[in-house]
């Protein structure tokens, strides 16, 4: 039976590209929302979920940190995808015919210099691959789309200008999630552990909770806060650390963290991606 990996967006989206890069042997399953991606895995319609969590230019993907702890899924891998943005148009269309370019607002913002230089007006759309699909169906030679190579291939569009993004290191980090956890040691670049926690209501609780990682020499690569249920007093934190929970320094740090927290949930233990800096 063919295994499936679910992603949010239309075929040809960057999440679809991430699926092909990370799990080329699996069938990619497009879903309308992040919640639909999670439900596809929970229901058994898919084996893995491919979820974007952060972009090197625009930071955290909105709402994703709230979704992960509630998903019931477990992080089993990560993938870094270099986001190359192209201007796509109808076959045979020259670049100077394009008057408007449509895409997700994030991509439009990442190509400001190119669009301004060529006098191309921005048109905001729901997603990147959907924009390419619209251009292919509309048949308007003055309308282009900002999307990746895969979208051009799927919808039969020409790449009129390649790699037009303003920042040459624009990268999105994805997490692969499954119904069951996998804490086995794998890969050749070490392990990562991701967890969320809420500190106890005592003075300097966060400072004391973080002290265990410093004293045990555990590198914390990410620490971000987010509110729970819109409350200003129930702040939770999302963290990535290098190492496996069974490593003695990590185990001691997590034990100390638990003493100062009212909530601690390990979301996944997984190998560090080769593209992680």
Quickly give the CATH architecture of the largest domain.
Answer: 3-Layer(aba) Sandwich
Oligomeric composition of the shown chains: single chain
Order of helices and strands: EHEHEEHEEEHHEHEHEEEHEEHE
What is the percent of helical residues? 25-40%
Number of separate domains: 3
Average the pLDDT over all residues and give the rounded result: 93
CATH topology name of the largest domain = D-Maltodextrin-Binding Protein, domain 2
- The assigned structural class equals alpha/beta
CATH superfamily of the largest domain: Periplasmic binding protein-like II
N/C terminus separation? 36 Å
Radius of gyration: 21 Å
Counting DSSP E segments of at least 2 residues, the number of strands comes to 15
Pfam family, one: PDT
Enzyme class: lyase
Domain ACT: 194-271
Catalytic activity: prephenate + H(+) = 3-phenylpyruvate + CO2 + H2O
Brief description of this entry?
The chain is of the alpha/beta class.
Q: Which features does this protein show?
A:
D-Maltodextrin-Binding Protein, domain 2, Alpha-Beta Plaits, ACT_dom, phenylalanine biosynthesis, 277 residues, prephenate dehydratase activity, alpha/beta, aromatic amino acid biosynthesis, 15 strands
């Amino acid at each position: 039976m063919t295994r499936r990996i679910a992603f949010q967006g239309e075929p040809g989206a960057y999440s679809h590209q991430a699926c092909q890069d990370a799990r080329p042997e699996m069938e990619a399953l497009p879903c309308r929302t992040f919640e639909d991606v999670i439900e596809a895995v929970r229901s058994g319609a898919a084996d893995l979920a491919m979820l974007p969590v952060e972009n090197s230019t625009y930071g955290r993907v909105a709402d994703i940190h709230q979704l992960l702890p509630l998903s019931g899924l477990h992080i089993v891998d990560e993938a870094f995808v270099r986001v190359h943005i192209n201007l796509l148009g109808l076959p045979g269309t020259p670049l100077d015919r394009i008057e408007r370019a449509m895409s997700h607002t994030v991509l439009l913002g990442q190509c400001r210099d190119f669009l301004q230089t060529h006098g191309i007006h921005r048109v905001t759309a729901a997603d990147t691959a959907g924009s390419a699909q619209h251009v292919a169906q509309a048949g308007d030679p003055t309308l282009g789309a900002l999307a990746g190579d895969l979208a051009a291939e799927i919808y039969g569009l020409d790449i009129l200008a390649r790699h037009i993004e303003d920042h040459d290191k624009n990268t999105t980090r994805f997490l692969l999630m499954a119904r069951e956890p996998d804490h086995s040691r794998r890969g050749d670049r070490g392990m990562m552990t991701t967890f969320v926690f809420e500190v106890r209501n005592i003075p300097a609780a966060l400072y004391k909770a973080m002290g265990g990682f410093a004293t045990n020499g555990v590198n914390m690569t990410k620490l971000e806060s987010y509110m729970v249920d819109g409350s200003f007093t129930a702040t939770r934190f999302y963290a990535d650390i290098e190492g496996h929970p069974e490593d003695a320094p990590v185990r001691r740090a997590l034990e100390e963290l638990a003493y100062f927290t009212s909530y601690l949930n390990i979301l996944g233990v997984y190998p560090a991606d080769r593209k992680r800096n």
